[in-house]
Amino acid sequence: MPIKVLHTSDWHLGKRLFKYERLEEQVQFLDWLYQHITKNQIDILIVAGDIFDVPSPPNNALKVFYDFIARLGELGSVQTVLITGNHDSATLFDAPKLLFETHNCHIYNRLDADLSKLEYYFEKDNQKIGIKLLPYFRNYELQNHLVDSKDDEDQKVKKFFQKFLNKWKQEPDIKILVGHHVFGNYELSGSEHAIYLSGVDHIPLNWVTPHFDYVALGHIHKKQALSKDPGVIYTGSPIPMRFSESNNKYISEIKIESNNLSYDFVKIPIFKKLIQLKTKQKTYKEDIEDLLLSSCNNSETTLLEVMVQLEGPQTGIVTDIREMLKYTSIEMISFIPSFNTQEEKSTSYQDVRSLNIMDLFDRYYYDKFGEETVPREMKECFTSLLNEVKNEDT
Ligand SMILES: [Mn+2]
User: Which protein residues have a CB closer than 5 Å to ligand 1 (ion)?
Assistant: First the structure.
C-alpha cells in the first residue's frame, strides 16, 4: 500500500473580500477536502501555514477549523500535520495543541529551541517518512539560533539552515520539508504580505533541494513548482483571495511507493467565481448586459468587481449596475472608478499645506478631470458635506 499525503496551505479562514464573508466557500472547500481524504484513503494531511486570516480569528472561523479537525480525528486513519504562517498567531495555537494531539493533529507553531522537536515521523509497510516542520518565524526567534561568530548575517543564517535541514533524530527513507516562507524565484499573486528573514529576503533553492524528496510550501497564493524533481511546491490558496487571481486552485497529492515519491496537482472545484469587468463610462450598460448573457446558465453565485474608466463626473453608475444585477446570481462587491489623468501640475508638499480645503478641492477636481473650474452645483454639494462633517465632530 502506498503512503498518501495531501499538501495544502493558505486557507485564511475568516477572510473577507471587502465586506463579503468567504467562510461559506471555505466550508465548502473543507467538505470537499474531507470527501477527498476519505475516498482516496489519505494517510497524512499537510497544511503549510496561514490557517486563519488574522491572529485573532472570529469565533465562526475557529469553529469551522475545530470541527474539521474533530471530523478528521474521528476517522482515526488520518494524521494532520500543520505549521503556522505569518497570518497566524503562534500563541493562539498553543491553547488547543494537546487537545488536538488526541485527534491526530500535530501543530508546529514555533522555532523551538530544541530543533529536533520540529520533526514528525510516519511509518507504514516498512516505509518510513520524516517531515521537517519550519513554521513561519519572527526575526528574534531566528536570532536565538544564530551562533555568535564573526560571520556576516547571510553566513550565519545559512549555517543555521544547514544545521536544521541536515540533522535527523532517525534517518528516514523519504524526507519532506514543510515551510511558510519565500523560497527561490517565486511569483506573487498580490494578496500575500511581504515577509523577510534576518539577512536574507528569500531562502535559496539549493539550500533545500539536495536534502529533501518534496518541499511543501505555503505563503504564496498562486500554485507553482519552483523545482519539479524534487518537487518544491506552493499549492496556493484554495479559493482566490482577490479579483486579480485565477479561479483555478489546487492541492497537491503525494504518493510514496517502494520508497519512490511522486506527486500530482488535484483541481479544487470553483465554489464562487470571482470576475473582474473593465468597462467605460459610455459602454458600461452594454458590457453588463453582455456579462449577464454569457452567464445566464450559471446559477452559482459570482462575485464581481467593476472597474469603470470615467471621462467626466457622473453619479448613479453603481445604482444602475446594482439594478441590472438584481434577481441574477451576480453580486457586485467592488466598484472602482478611474479617471483619465491629465498632465500633472506639480504641487509640492509645502504648496498643499498652504492651501485651504476649498482650494484643495479645486486642485483635486483639476487632477481628476483636467478642468480649472468646479461646477457651481458640485461646489455647493461639497460645502454642505463639509458642514455636515463639521457638525458631526462637535
Ligand atoms: Mn497566505
Answer: 10, 50
90 shares its domain with 136:
yes
Tell me the residue range of the domain where 78 lies: 3-268
* Ligand 1 centre distance from Cα of residue 219 (Å): 4
Distance 83 CA to ligand 1 centre (A): 12
192 alpha carbon to ligand 1 midpoint, in Å?
Answer: 6
| Chain centroid, CA 357 distance in Å | 39
Into how many domains does the chain fold? 3
Q: Kindly report the CA angle at 169 between 164 and 170, in degrees rounded to 5? A: 125
Q: Are 295 and 329 in contact (CB under 8 A)?
A: yes
Instruction: Summarize pLDDT for 20-31 with one digit per residue, the tens.
Output: 999 999 999 999
- Mind listing the pLDDT tens digit for each residue in 4-19? 999 999 999 999 999 9
| Ligand 1 centre distance from Cα of residue 295 (Å) | 30
Q: How far is the CA of 174 from the centre of ligand 1 (A)?
A: 27
- Among 74, 128, 124, 129, residue whose Cα is nearest residue 104: 74
Using the mean position of ligand 1's atoms as its centre, give its distance from the Cα of residue 217 in Å.
Answer: 11
Q: Are residues 87 and 100 in the same domain?
A: yes
| Distance in Å, CA 240 to ligand 1 centroid | 11
**Maximal C-alpha separation, the chain:** 83
- Same domain flag for 52 and 85: yes
Whole-model pTM: value is 0.83
CA 292 – ligand 1 centroid, Å: 33
Shared-domain flag, residues 93 and 42: yes
pLDDT value at residue 200: 61
